[in-house]
Amino acid sequence: MTRSGSDGAAATLAAPAGRIAPAGQVAAGPGVVRAWWADGRGLPAGAVAELAAALAPQERSRYDTVSDPLGRAEFVLARYVLRSVLGRMLGRPPARVGLAVDRAGRPWVTDAPGVDVSIAHAAGLVAVAVGSGLAPRTRIGVDVEEVRTVPRAGDLARRLFSPAERARLGRASGRAGDLLWLDVWTRREAYVKAVGTGVRSLAGAPEQGVGHLWHPLRLPRGFTGGLVVVEPG
User: Fold this and answer.
1) Residue 146 forms beta bridges with which residues?
2) Which tens digits make up the pLDDT trace of 87-133?
3) Taking a C-beta distance cutoff of 8 angstroms, is the pair 65, 42 a contact?
4) Do 34 and 9 touch, CB atoms closer than 8 A?
5) pLDDT at 57 over 90
């Protein structure tokens, strides 16, 4: 990811398990987008319950629908990281950070103009992106995936990827092919998160660099992903 200025609020923070570590930052018009990751694998059940107790009512309702223990850990850790980062950025206790979810399921900060946020999680890893000082209508999206061979990857590529993307995939194989496939997927998913159209519109996401900028993240070994910045105009 292209770096811009000082990490500032991107300093490593204490976390219930492991750490919250900076994944990079990038300039976005007059503002900046910063990203962090945290590892929820091995998060003790007691820590998950403690974090869940601090959820807002709407968040608690969503949390209660998740039955998988790792999914619950990802959910509460993502919101803990997001509130911690925003609290430091906005100069207020994390519990007083106003978060809501729009009709498309995108989280947003209720009382902070020029701020946009996005979260993602996969296999226990959580990623959070926060843009500040952004121009109106600038949107960000983040996505991460565990590095692996995806079942039916070829079928999915034929349905969702562009001819140019499929051509690049055709020239790669093995681990390099897996990574390239996941890079295309995470870019497309981050884009539809940013614009709020959902995974059903993955096939309609534009080519890389068309109407958006894609920035890979620095993530722990075994994971890949990045963030998209969609600026107005």
Assistant:
1) 223
2) 999 999 988 899 988 888 889 999 899 999 999 999 999 999 999 99
3) no
4) yes
5) no
- Report d(CA 117, CA 119) in Å as an integer: 7
Q: Can you point out the beta strands (E) in the chain?
A: 13-14, 19-28, 31-39, 99-101, 107-109, 116-122, 125-132, 139-146, 213-216, 223-230
pTM to 2 decimal places: 0.89
Q: Burial code of 14-50, b = ≥16 C-beta within 10 A, e = fewer?
A: ebbebebbbbbbbebbebbbbbbbbbbeebeeebbee
Place of tokens 């007083």: 96
Is residue 212 within 8 Å of 173, Cβ to Cβ? no
* pLDDT for 227 beyond 60: yes
Mean pLDDT of 157-178: 94
Neighbours of 215 (CB within 10 A): 22
Cα 118 to chain centroid distance, Å, stands at 5
Give the least confident one: 40-44, 198-202, 228-232: 198-202
Of 78, 97, 99, give the one whose Cα is nearest residue 87.
97
Q: How far apart are CA 111 and CA 138, in angstroms?
A: 16
Which residues does residue 130 pair with via DSSP β-bridges, in sequence order? 34, 117
Tokens found for residue 49: 């319950």
User: From CA 26, how far away is CA 141, in angstroms rounded?
Assistant: 13
3-state secondary structure of 82: helix
Name the pLDDT band for 8 (thresholds 50, 70, 90).
Answer: very low
